[in-house]
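Handout for the seminar on molecular recognition.
Each group receives one record of this type.
Step one: identify the two inputs.
Step two: read the structure output and locate the region that could contact adenosine monophosphate.
Step three: write two sentences on what you found, then compare them with the reference statements printed after the record.
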Amino acid sequence: MSDPLRFNPRVATIPFKRVGILGGGQLGRMLALAAHPLGIQCRFLDPAPDAPAGDVGELIVGEFDDPTALDRFAHGLDAATFEFENVPVAAVEQVARTVTVSPSALALSVGQDRAREKALFQELGIGVPRYRLAATLEEYGRAAAEVGAPCVAKTRRMGYDGKGQHVLRSIAEADHAWRALGGAPAIFEAFVDFSFEFSVIGVRGVKGEIRTYAPIRNVHQGGILRTSTVPAPGLPQALGDAARVHVAAIMERLNYVGVLAVEFFAADGTLLANEMAPRVHNSGHWTIEGAVTSQFENHIRAVCGLPLGDTSSRGTSVMHNIVGDPLNAAVRLADPRAKLHWYGKEPRPGRKVGHVTIVTEGPTG
Ligand code: AMP
């Protein structure tokens, strides 16, 4: 660690002034809040006029498949990225004709398809649950029989927060799965009797430098993340280290620039990769208070070609998502250590409207 007293404040002028972000949800909002102290403004494209990021940056209201809106968005940007992994690859490709978009359209397209993610993990020697692909009713039946019950059928594309999934208790339920998923191309995965779930967030810069954050233990309910804890309780050091190496390998393989999150299951003392998100991730929100440099700041640094910041933890962090629950802020803040992040969204059942992080055992004074 360099001596802070020897820090040279004469930083060069940052040539990046305006970063475009496809998607204007809470992730975009937190990216803009992290960019601001660096002298970087964010512009968003989102179909919703009340998108949460609109409070903290210029919001262009438009569809992701509207070429005119995409051109207005891209005009005059110094760099671009996305905060929503279901943004069409074609939108990224169009913007990339005007300004560099990081991560690349390739990384986005892999992250949008559970089958390509799994193939990439396997290519890199990363364990995955047993799985089969299926696109017709007959293939659904065959995939269920080959994977065995219980198993989970997931749409290959456009799934998030447990949506587009159906658990099969017996292989005879393949036709239920077919109806539940609307006959979409699917992946059937063995149901993993995991001890717990964890994730690793990494960041790669334009020159190929890589940093990873401490592994995070995650608890989901109904497919939605509820809490994230760091250091991950019960995660053996060797397993966490292996996961960090895997995340670095994925980023190398994709020539990735920006923040990448990979979710894992810990089962029987080994790890299995579940999925990756080519963007900042809910399980990394603790880094705002709990790490020297947040995932949001590091993503902005990476897409702007700036040096990456230190990813070390400051102590023990616990992040609680506030899901669909209009409990007032005063209650959330009753614990003086609580740091509240309210996204400015209308509370609805199952909707993430904010989060609270508590960091302990950090430096005192
Ligand atoms: P996903 O959208 O793939 O992240 O799935 C959402 C949640 O469903 C995960 O965080 C797990 O809690 C659960 N889940 C997904 N896949 C499996 C699996 N193969 N076995 C057991 N639980 C799973």
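Reference statements: The chain has a mean pLDDT of 93. Residues 237-253 form the longest helix (17 residues).
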